[in-house]
Every structure is written in C-alpha cells, then in structure tokens.
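Can anyone check this?
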Amino acid sequence: MFASNNYPAKKFHNMKEIKEVKAYICPETGEKYLSRAEAERSAAAVIKAREDKRIAAEQKKLAEQSNLEKQDWIRLNATNIEEIPQLIEQKAKEFWGIDCKVKIDVSFGKVSNSSNAPFGKKTNWSGENKNYPTSFLGWRGKIVAHFSNYKKKAGHFDYSISNVLFCENGRGIGFKGFYTGTGCPGDIGGEYPMDIGFSFFLEDFPKLAESYKLFKKEYQKVLDNKEDVRHLMSKAEMAVNTHQGVNKIADQIFNLNMELEQLKEEVRKKYILDNPVAPAKIDPRLEGLKEIFKSDNGYGEFPNEDYEYGKI
C-alpha cells in the first residue's frame, strides 16, 4: 500500500529484500545456470555427446563398408573357378573367424534367372516375361561344406551353413554373388554338412568375365581354323576326284577288283567240289523233338536263322 494524503505510509515488516541474480545461458541448449562453470559444463557435455554420436556413426559406416567389401571380396577378385572353395575357406576364417571345409562341383552354361539374377538384372519366374531373358551365363552344380568351431553372434540370421556362408536376399553375413538351391542347407552345429544346389552368374565376377572374353576370342580362332581346314579338305577332295591320273588308276583298280572277285569265286567253287562234306546221319526222331523244343527264335539254345535274319 502506498502513502497518500489520506493514508499515511506503513511498513511491510514481512517482505523479503528483492535481489538481482545474474544468469549464465548454455550456448548449446539455451538453458540458464547460476554459474559460468555449470553453463560451460553443459555446453561441453552437449558437444561431446554430438561428437561421440558423429564418431559412432562414422565407425558404423566404416564397419558396414568394410563388411560390404568382405562380402564382395571373392566375386570381385576370383580369377579361377578352382580357387573359389579355397577362397571361401580362407576368407571366411580371415573375415569372420569361421572354420569350414568347402568343395564345389559346377559346370559352365546357362543359369536360370527364375529365382535369382545377376546384380542389376531382373528375375523371370518360369519365363513369365516373354520379352526378357530366362537365363544368363554362369556356373551351376552343387556345393558341399561343413562347419567346425562356429559360434553364432547376436542378431545373425543363422540356422544353417548356407545362411552363414552366403548373403542372399539380405540374409546371411557371408559372401555375395553365390546362390543356393534345393538340398540340405547344413547344420551350423556341425552334425549335418551342407550339400545343396549352387550357382553364380558370370557377369557378377568381373575378373572371370574378363577371362571369358579372352577365352571366347581365342576359341573363336580355333573354330575359324577348323572351318578353314574343312573347306581346304573339301577342295582337296574335289581336286582328287577330278585328277586324270587318279581317275585312270582308280579305273584300273576297279577292273582289277572285278577280275579278283571273279577269280576268287572260281577258286572257291572248285575247292568245294574237290572237297565235299559228307552229310550228317540224322536220327529220324529229330523232327518230333523239334516240335517239342520249338520257339519263335530257335530250338532251345540254337538260334532260328530265319528269325535272326528277319525272314519271319
């Protein structure tokens, strides 16, 4: 209450003294603190948390990139089919600490893209898209493998060897570019080996694709050479058939062969006449016995000559 002409001023004995308080604002959060030190600690904590988050994100990115490089290592570096089992064993141990034994049996040719396709290409289930390929060049066959000393890690989609060794459709920690089909996927506990269909596409393996280009180019030379030789042999045969000397001798050989065959026949007939064979003495009961043992193709163990030569 304030003093006036009518009301003299009174003292408020219970009112506390009003003090001026200085506040310090954290530049990172905007919060107020009573001391500079508290505001600085708040700012430092925020900056550290942000930096830790950035570092963690960078490390995660590097780890993911590193794992992608590991998953792609074989397909980007393999230069020979025979070395793939050894590379799987070696790199699975080096990258993820997996002990395994691997054997593959594959052959080169057209690989169906019904369920899987090369990177960047589409699948074509049962050839539903008539305007799109139903296969690509690659290898197909089977793979046999088993684990030892394998420990499942948290978050891994692991229940079979196939899901660990190979990364298909985003599943598995293993190698990319390989696809498994029907068969036993294998037990990661080591009880049952993996024995399953196996395939991979040529164009997903750049160094193998380069080798194929070289093979195709050089093998075409072999085919061209064979064709050239075939044409040459054909022309040589024509030259032989039209050569006068060859034809003259061929005629002489023909006439001599005719004379030879005539002489052989004359000598054969004379020899038979000069060396007659006495007929066998046959038991008259033979005819009756023949009826007993007669069949379509002979008598007992004796073949029927008419049956053998197609007369009946």
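Reply from J.R.: I decoded it. The chain has seven helices and nine strands.
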